[in-house]
Amino acid sequence: MSAPSSAAGYRHLSDHDLIAQAVLGASDAFGELVRRHSAALRTHLRRMGAQGADADDMAQEAFITAYERLTEYRADGPFLNWLKMIAARRYLRKVKTTQKYLLVEDVTPYETAPDLHQAGQNEGAARDLDGALSRLKPAERLCVTLNISGGLSHQDVSNETGLPLGTVKSHIKRGLTQLRAMLDMAEAVPAVIER
């Protein structure tokens, strides 16, 4: 396949074709991958718990790492999932080095349960997945996001976070139960990924 003559010419190519072009040195091809996946990657990081500017910085760092390691991508899954794993590892390293909340085993509610009457009045806000995720305890939010958005199995989440497998399963189960209750639409919350 020959390289398109302009950056706009890359838009019709698949991720795999773009990666092949980028490996051959076409920086515009990688630019198209960044344009295509940056919003999803930032959303994934925010849902894990990264704050706005941190999420943007970590997404950018993840793209730089991906570019440097592009020849290591094995195409055994979607490119976006590979990016999410790179970004998740950067986020986990940051959480561990700053000794934030990740490994806390406290099972008390992270935030008070929403007032259902108030929630009904603010229906739009109550149905907001990101808002509901922000009400979960940080470890629950992280485990649910890695499992559902990142496509990792319980064992993979355990391996990446360093949390015991049983704890990961508990965090995911509690997190999904709370999300279903907050969103009041169980069918909208995707099924857990167990492998």
TrEMBL record:
Q: Which molecular function term from Gene Ontology is one that the record holds?
A: DNA binding
User: What GO biological process term is on the record, naming one?
Assistant: DNA-templated transcription initiation
**What are the record keywords, sorted?**
Sigma factor, Transcription, Transcription regulation
* InterPro entries according to UniProt: RNA_pol_sigma-70-like, RNA_pol_sigma-70_dom, RNA_pol_sigma70_r2, RNA_pol_sigma70_r4_t2, RNA_pol_sigma_r2, RNA_pol_sigma_r3/r4-like, WH-like_DNA-bd_sf
Name the domain of life. Bacteria
Q: Which Pfam families match?
A: Sigma70_r2, Sigma70_r4_2
Q: Which residues form a coiled coil?
A: none
Q: Indicate the segments forming the RNA polymerase sigma factor 70 region 4 type domain, all copies.
A: 128-179
Q: Which residues form the RNA polymerase sigma-70 region domain?
A: 33-99
Q: Which family does it belong to?
A: Belongs to the sigma-70 factor family. ECF subfamily.
Question: What NCBIfam families is this protein classified in?
Answer: sigma70-ECF
> What name is this protein filed under?
RNA polymerase sigma-70 factor, ECF subfamily
* Species name: Asticcacaulis excentricus
